[in-house]
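Trying the structure run again after the queue cleared.
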Amino acid sequence: MSVAVLQDNAEIFARNRASGHVVVTAHAKGGITRRAHVHESGSLRARFPNTTDGSLEVVTVNTAGGMTGGDRFGMEVSLGAGARMTFGTAAAEKIYRSLGPDTEIALKLDVGKHASLAWLPQETILFDQARLDRRIDISLDDTASLVMCEGVVFGREAMGEAVAQGLYIDRWRLRRGGKLVFAETARLAGQIAKTLAQPASANGAIALATLLLVPGDEEMATKIRDLSFAGEAGVSVWNGLALVRFCARDSAALRHDIMQTLAALNLCALPRLWLS
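Done. Tokens:
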């Protein structure tokens, strides 16, 4: 295939890229959290299953069925004082092959005084030659609490799929009381499968996740270290937060390890779609 044809295809995809944006603002009154403002655009939708404990549950649905190069998606969540929210997704998000442009995802989370957010989407699945650039910006009040887990699976091993080539950039920035307390950028580029196979990276694992707990302490860390995992996990505590890394051979093992960790900590209820 000629360079000119590839360029033409890339231009066609750029002109037809998908986009989606969801904004949810929640307020609490009398111990009940309700949505104060909801905005949806593009192929991203928000649904609100009924709850029995006075909290608000949000489930997003990508009607496009996945994302590919040049697509841009964003979510903004704001919780007022005392609000309680659990966020999930209707399915694992899929990032498909790109002809060149990156798939861009931007998350902005703002959690107010004595509010709590459990951010528990299903895992993101990257296919071969996918290119994902994601940015997560979190602002917490000093009295707010956060349980946040993001998982990524490089290919579907059961289907014989591997991510030989691609790009994965994941930026996290967490501010608590206006101060930056956590910042990291993960980057895998080029021969991703070979990088993950190296003992110093993932030692052959293809399913990875990060669990961020605020506030976090050594008591939490001890509970986590006492668990038996299908894959591998490690936990660190500093700056008033706890950070857990998961590494597994497939998505089923990863989900098992995340679910048992959350159950042991008993900080929030799992989204019901995790259990289906």
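Helices lie at 3-15, 192-197, 218-225, 251-265. Worth checking whether this holds up in the mutant runs.
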